[in-house]
Design goal:
14 helices; Serine Threonine Protein Phosphatase 5, Tetratricopeptide repeat; 2 domains
Length: 282
């Protein structure tokens, strides 16, 4: 008769959730069932690595990870196996149920994000790894060789992953322990050109955002100078500094209002050149 532990592994591989439940209910001690001939992978490792979401959910509900997150002989979690093999549905389940496993690393220093970056089929999992509210994956993490997720994405030729990682601030100039940047690992000339264009695009956006921020600060400072009566600028210089702000951001009605009369009264200076608005007694 075939041993129950072997039958359980076969049932998981076949995706037979009914048989899996039956075997575990009859043999509760086999819930984790590590396979010492295969990296000590547990039942959940096996289900995650082969994309058996229904079975993975049952194993979790049965208490598979009750004490701690399972790790195999390479210190890999079930989430890492799901990420390596492109099983997004199981990966999302594991992120939701065990968010702390997102930032865990294996013996090579790879986390789930770096592993997912190696597999183009796991691109759909990457946004969920990056956006986990309590344990978000970092695009700047490095493995034992100094490689970032961007290095792995470039080496795997996963162009969508490159775009996602760059959009969240991954450094395209980061060097690994061998002094190589992610660009050096491009699989083809076309991929290299695409990577360069992506980097140029995001750099252009950064420059534009910096200019917009500088413009906002300039306009804000210009508004402050209007209120400050101790400024050495005369009226024409004030108008030159904030004129553009008035034209772009103030309504026609607001332009008719005096600049800042109240502080001038507080300092004892009479209001000069004031006039009422037409049609009102103000």
């Amino acid at each position: 008769m075939i041993d129950a532990s072997i039958r359980l592994r076969r049932a998981i591989l076949l995706g037979d959730s009914v048989l899996v439940e039956r075997i575990i209910k009859c043999n509760p001690r086999l819930l984790q069932n590590p396979d010492f001939h295969n990296q000590s992978n547990t039942s959940l490792h096996l289900a995650a690595g082969h994309g058996k979401a229904l079975i993975a959910s049952f194993l979790i509900d049965a208490g598979h990870e009750k004490s701690e997150v399972s790790r195999n002989a390479s210190h890999e979690t079930p989430l890492m196996l799901a990420a390596r093999n492109g099983h997004v549905e199981v990966g999302r389940l594991l992120i939701h149920r065990f968010p702390r496993c997102v930032t865990m690393t294996n013996e090579a220093g790879l986390d789930a994000l770096s592993i997912a970056s190696q597999a183009p089929a796991s691109t759909g999992l990457i946004p969920f790894l990056l956006s986990e509210p309590d344990y978000p994956a970092s695009p700047h993490t490095q493995d034992q060789d100094g490689n970032t997720p961007l290095h792995h994405a470039s080496a795997s030729g996963s162009l969508k992953t490159l775009r996602i990682l760059l959009s969240v601030g991954a450094n395209p100039l980061a060097k690994n322990n061998y002094d190589w940047t992610p660009l050096a690992y491009s699989q083809t000339v076309a991929a290299e050109v695409y990577f360069k264009n992506l980097v140029a695009e995001f750099e252009r956006r950064k420059i534009e955002e910096a200019k917009m921020s500088e413009e906002r600060n300039r306009l804000k400072n210009g508004g402050v100078r209007l209120v400050d009566d101790e400024s050495k600028l005369d009226e024409s210089e004030d108008d030159e500094v904030i004129g553009d702000a008035l034209r772009r951001h103030w309504s026609p009605l607001e332009r008719k209002l005096p600049a800042a009369p109240l502080p001038r009264h507080e300092w004892g200076t009479p209001v000069q050149h004031s006039r009422t608005r037409s049609g009102s007694g103000d």
